[in-house]
Amino acid sequence: MIELPVLRWGSPYTSMDVDDVVHFSTGEPIARVSRANGGLIQRDMRKAARAREVLREIPIDDLIARAARAGELYTSATLPMGDGTQTSDEFVHAQSATTGLPEQMCRANMRKNAFVLGRMGGILTALTRGLALDVLTRGHGEERDVPISYQANSPVLGLVLPSNSPGVHTLWMPIIPLQIGLVLKPGPQEPWTPYRMAAAFFEAGIPREAISIYPGGADVGAAVLESCGRSLVFGGTATVDRYRGDPRVQAHGPGFSKILLADDQVDDWERHIDVMVESVFVNSGRSCINCSSIWASRHTREIADALARRLADVRPLPPENPDAALAAFTVPGVADAISGAIDADLTAPGVTDVTATYREGGRVVPEGSAAYLLPTVVHSSAPDAAIVKAEYMFPFVSVVECPQAQMVSAIGPTLVCSAITDDEALRRQLLDATHIDRLNLGPVPTTQLNWLQPHEGNIVEFLFRTRAYQAAPIQAATPA
Amino acid sequence: MTEISAEQQAARDALDAHVRDIVRWHFDPETGCPFWLEKATSLGFDPRKEITGFGDLHRFGPFEDEWLRGGPVQRWVPRGLAGKPVFVFETGGTTGVPKTRVACDDFRTDYELFSATLPDEHFPKGANWLMLGPSGPRRLRLAVEHLAQHRGGICFCVDLDPRWVIKLIKKGWTEHLMAYKDHVIDQAVTILSANHDIRCLFTTPKLLESLALRLESNGTTIRKAGITGIFSGGTEFTPQWNRFAHEELLDGAYMTPTYGNTLMGLAASAPTGPHNNYTIAYYAPQPRAVLDVVDFDDPNRVVDYGETGRIKLTTLTRECFIPGFLERDEGEREPPYERCPWDGVSGVRPYRGFASTTTVGVY
Question: What is the residue-averaged pLDDT of chain A?
């Protein structure tokens, strides 16, 4: 079993409190992880400024090159992991074993992280709108003959990470190249990416003092958020609500991502069924960018029926099977609870489980101490049914009948909106809708991201503030 | 059958004798309190005749939490103590009616007994104290103040209201929480810097962390601020936290863990430190209070040594009789040791059945 220590500015610290991270199905311990305590983090954060100092000693262009190297090492090298080492295959195997994510999805997420690391130069150029990056290091510069100044809001970024999908780690890949230190609290079932990525960064020449990793419980997450000047936290709606309006915290919760089929295109809905399936199904529906509802004014029953026919045959396969497409729910009872919640919402008038007509038995498939939920397509004949606002971490989608005139206001907060329409008025309305974050116009899967664009806010704007800056030379005093 | 030492046997005999004495007192119409005298009418047995020792206390059945909530509070005052000034102390109370316990002198007696366990070189007689923690309806303020006075010192007090802290946490008012914590620590730092020769400190683990970090920011330490001895307590006082505090917060000041609450006295810890891997084992002040570690499903079965169970507390004083109160904590049963020839408990943490719904370590 691998022992993973707390990492305090790169120095391992073995705690007396440990948590076993276990195989999702058999319960076999895979790793023993040291648990940090809140005071330890608060004490370490007194030296947070040092993390930025050591990174600022390395030019950003150099850090970008080292990030690319880290991406290669992360993908293919044998790297230190706690008290041992880990090959990339062993990493994938371990990550799959503790998260319930099929190995092919772990590999896909690994490629995604490495892709971002390999294109860091372009990503930073895009996120900073072409800023000369040394301005971030110096704090000031000049652009089009105007003095400019960027000030880091915090020397480090805290991250309270989830376990649901290793793809979320792409969000913090640009932080080190921006010369900001990392304070990571791994998700309880997914310590692997933070530790492997830290090891890859170190091997690639990133100073150890730039990265801390603090596994632990809720008190550890609270201490990270309390003691870092800027943090990202991942959680449910309650977490997002709790931190709304807090300038220090960017909360990432459910995406409630959607596909809208407008009146001018909906009669050709069959042409877009692949986009819909991909949006719902890829990565086992675990991401905030997976589509959780599809909206149209007509043909909704046929759309739901077609989706159900495509998804109803999907069954869990062993995680190592290259065709495995469903991830397990690792926490006992969660799958049953979700299924129960869906059943409760299905009692509302006008709501039906369309997949149920294409398979026998329930949607829960037990697997040892874990369980799978089979893809579920629900039809709702009205936009106000509770199930329309539901999002679950498996391939689950509501197909909602809603007049186009009401659609934009009825969809509510939406991380990714793919609107299939050529209707200029609707496009204008969507462009102006502030409750939509990422907008795709046309048949773009909600899961297809352009990494050169911001995600739920621009990370550069979150970490740096622009301000006025003027400097004038001091004339030598004239002798009297 | 497990063999026990002469010291353990003597302790058991003393406990049994004490139980008989306390039960006689609480069930005698001349001296008992209205609650137990009324309860006696439905017990189906006469406790004064049939309770012959600690092992018989299970006959009272489980002690129900709810009996301690609501009034009239006088139903808990023993008639034998009529005319004495009575204190009432509360526990919990963030929502709903708090549990209450009456007391006359118990808190003084408990803390005098605890005082005897404190090493004078770290808690010098005559030194002044700082009590940095919850006061209000809790007995802690008066108890620590009495401890300081009993040892010849004077106690400065800084209050923290845990009920307000829990509300701030539940509301997610982090900014207010931080401001309140700073407000409390500001006061403590001011007092420590005011030449009052404060050398002893009671505080909670969270406040100790905050105080140590603030002092570190000010370029000093707990020890350099004059503190030589600290006692602290709570379920967040884990071996890891104990180690962290010793290695990184205390700068050589001595600290001893305690486990207690308004209902019980104060359980002191066997000496702890690097020599025993910072393990913390608490021993109740028998015979006035007894800690048992019992089966989660059968509170009448004490688990084996080293096994995990729920903590069951029995309070046996003339002011208060609480048999078999199931605490909100669990831990491992520890064997007797030379200073306390009776069972102890280690690894104390919130009981798993409540852990997810209880806010602990708030102050």
Answer: 94
Q: Given this model, what pLDDT does residue B363 score?
A: 47
The pLDDT value given to residue B359: 46
SS (HEC) of B144-193: HHHHHHHCCCCEEEEECCHHHHHHHHHHCCHHHHHHHHHHHHHHHHHHHC
Chain A environment of B213 (Cβ under 8 Å)? 39, 42-43, 46
Say which of A16, A43, A226 has its CB closest to residue B240.
A16
Alpha carbon of B91: minimum distance to chain A alpha carbons (Å): 23
The answer to which of A6-10, A295-299, A455-459, B252-256 has the lowest mean pLDDT is: A455-459
Secondary structure (DSSP) of B61-83? -PPPGGGGBSS-GGGGS-GGGTT
% of chain A exceeding 70 in pLDDT: 100
CA dist., res. B156 & res. B192, Å (int): 10
Quote the pLDDT of residue A70. 97
Mutation test of the interface with chain A: which of B165, B174, B352, choosing the one with the most A Cβ atoms within 10 A? B174
Segments in chain B below pLDDT 70? 1-2, 93-95, 354-363
Q: Does B248 touch chain A (CB under 8 A)?
A: yes
CATH superfamily membership of B6-357: ANL, N-terminal domain (3.40.50.12780)
Parse chain B into domains and list their residue ranges. Answer: 6-357
- The mean pLDDT of A297-323, rounded to a whole number, is 95
Taken in order of first residue, the domains within chain A and their CATH numbers are 2-253 (3.40.605.10), 257-441 (3.40.309.10)
